[in-house]
Write a structure and sequence with these properties.
Layout: H1 3-10, E1 18-21, H2 35-45, E2 49-53, E3 55-57, E4 62-64, H3 70-84, E5 92-98, E6 101-108, E7 117-118, E8 121-126, E9 129-132, H4 135-143, H5 165-177, H6 187-193, E10 197-200, E11 203-206, H7 208-214, E12 227-234, E13 237-244, H8 248-262, E14 265-270, E15 273-278, H9 282-295, E16 305-310, E17 313-319, H10 328-333, H11 343-351, H12 361-371, E18 378-382, E19 385-391, H13 406-411, H14 416-428, E20 430-431, H15 433-440, H16 444-456, E21 460-463, E22 474-477, E23 481-482, E24 485-486
Parallel strand pairs: 1-2, 12-16
Antiparallel strand pairs: 2-6, 3-4, 5-6, 7-8, 8-9, 10-11, 12-13, 14-15, 16-17, 17-19, 18-19, 20-22, 21-22, 23-24
């Protein structure tokens, strides 16, 4: 990690995945003796994080004070976690230099087999605090284990009579055509082997996967295994509300019908033809719905999938956060092995032709929205679920909408912060520093170089232009971008002096 990267970190405040420590030993009266070990345990149970030793934090600013004996700090830290924590994978340590001062960085992953304990306590990270997990949160951590496919579970009262055996056998025939299973085998045994049924003392009973894929009425046993779809353009003025239930294949088809009915279309002339196109690509919306259905937490009995259509957005919310060690960044960059809490369901959806290649859905959604000239969807996750939000313009807005051409997204060397800056600008048309700080969740010093890069590349511009300063200054996409296209601009009068940004 170079000096600029360290400075970016220092410019940030402590949060859910970042903590600063002066040293391992308590530096203040009443300071927790095992604070660092507690934080590490909370990181493992949450979304991972980094602990920096050699940096002070007082809630207002950070200061690098350095460590006199960084290797001693490292050794003592690992001694503490070996004594107090039950990690299956150790954190990674890295020694850094900043202005000739020593810093120790501890990288904690999002654990693959939670819950992890500190002295028999299960801690989770909330803001910059380590809190005792509630019973509900601990239950969720158990469900988030990567070695546990929850759709193999059986539910009390469900019998083989609750399965449409004809539909299940038709699925077997499809697998036989694909040479996935051998012909001539007993169908009940095949359904057991692929996780649709489970053999118990009282005979064959359906699993959660069996009920959701081939159940006669799955919602008898899984009341909230539904999609709650609604549309409204004004507060408390509903246009349509629908609870979509039934099997997974039925939910996919009915959700698609709901979207096709309510998502606005616009006309384009392609060649000599007038072509109607949805404001958001239907394939991207369909993929987001399938992703939500395949990977949701079905043992969260209080949570349904939500499909919300609003005037300028469509949001799909799925109960169940990402499984460790998956992160949104890893998925979008392709540096991950696909994981799901519903391996049987995901496999069946893919083999039925609904789902693209496993692990490819979010990348496809991102590519389709860019190609349509839309801002990239906002993809996020928290302890309550996973969210994909599509942003678009209503018909009442002016046609000459400023938008970034897809070639810029594709060809320019943009990092995550730069992409977020551009998404914020596309969403708001223009942004000031306060909007950027809130959207990026970083101080302006942490992204000043990113702003400069985008200005130097003539992707964005500042008003008023540098070197002028103004408390009302804002940033917008460069005026050479209109309607997602690049137009020629006379830059002969362009003001020089890009070195002053703020």
């Amino acid at each position: 990690m170079n000096k600029d990267k360290i400075q970016e970190v220092i410019d940030n405040f402590e949060n859910t995945d970042l903590e600063f420590r002066t040293d391992l030993k308590p530096q203040k009266e009443n300071e927790e003796k095992y604070r660092a070990a507690k934080t590490a345990s909370a990181f493992y149970n949450s979304n991972g994080g980094e602990i920096y030793f050699g940096i002070t934090e007082d809630g207002k600013k950070r200061k690098v004070v350095g460590l006199k004996q960084p290797q001693v700090t490292e050794n003592n830290f690992f001694t503490q976690i070996n004594a107090k924590c039950n990690f299956d994978e150790m954190p990674k340590a890295e020694f850094l230099k900043y202005n000739e001062k020593n810093i120790l960085l501890i990288r904690c992953p999002k654990g693959a087999k939670p819950p992890y304990k500190f002295d028999n306590r299960v801690l989770i990270r909330s803001g910059s605090n380590n809190l005792d997990a509630t019973e509900e949160a601990i239950a969720r951590l158990y469900r988030d284990r990567v070695d546990y496919s929850q759709d193999k579970n059986v539910l009390a009262g469900a019998t083989i009579k609750d399965i449409d055996i004809d539909e299940a056998e038709a699925y077997i025939e499809g697998l036989q055509m694909l040479d996935e299973v051998a012909e001539g085998d007993d169908n009940l045994r095949i359904l057991t082997n692929i996780g649709i049924l489970k053999e118990e003392k009282q005979g064959y009973v359906p699993t959660i996967a069996g009920l959701l894929l081939f159940g006669i009425n799955p919602q008898i046993f899984l009341q909230n295994a539904i999609i709650k779809a609604d549309i409204k353009y004004e507060e408390d003025k509903w246009i349509d509300i629908k609870n979509i239930s039934g099997t997974i294949s039925n939910q996919i088809r009915e959700a698609e019908k709901f979207l096709m009915k309510h998502v606005e279309t616009s006309a384009k002339i392609i060649g000599f033809k007038r072509v109607e196109e949805y404001r958001v690509p239907m394939l991207a919306l369909r993929e987001a719905i399938i992703n939500a259905i395949a990977h949701r937490d079905y043992l969260n009995m209080s949570g349904a999938i939500h499909l919300e259509i609003r005037k300028n957005s469509i949001k799909i919310m799925s109960p169940g956060r990402l499984l460790p060690p998956l992160t949104i960044k890893k998925i979008l960059t392709g540096t991950f092995i696909p994981l799901t809490r519903n391996a049987i369901i995901a496999e069946a959806i893919q083999k039925s032709g609904f789902m693209e290649r496993r692990g490819n859905g979010l990348v496809l959604i991102k590519r389709l929205t860019r190609a349509a000239g839309l801002p990239e969807p906002i993809i996020s996750t928290d302890d309550n679920g996973f969210y994909v939000e599509f942003i678009f313009s209503s018909e009442t807005e002016v046609d000459e909408k400023v938008a970034l051409p897809s070639i810029i997204w594709k060809d320019e060397n943009l990092d995550n912060d730069m992409e977020k800056i551009l998404q914020l600008i596309e969403r708001h048309d223009k942004v000031n520093l306060k909007i950027l700080e809130k959207g990026l969740k970083k101080t302006r010093g942490a992204f000043s170089n990113k702003i400069k890069y985008l200005m130097d590349k003539e992707i964005i511009e500042r008003f008023p232009p540098p070197p002028a300063k103004s408390p009302r200054a804002y940033y917008a996409l460069h005026n050479r971008f209109v309607n997602g296209e690049i137009k020629n601009v006379d830059n002969s009068q362009k003001t020089s002096g890009q070195q002053t940004i703020f």
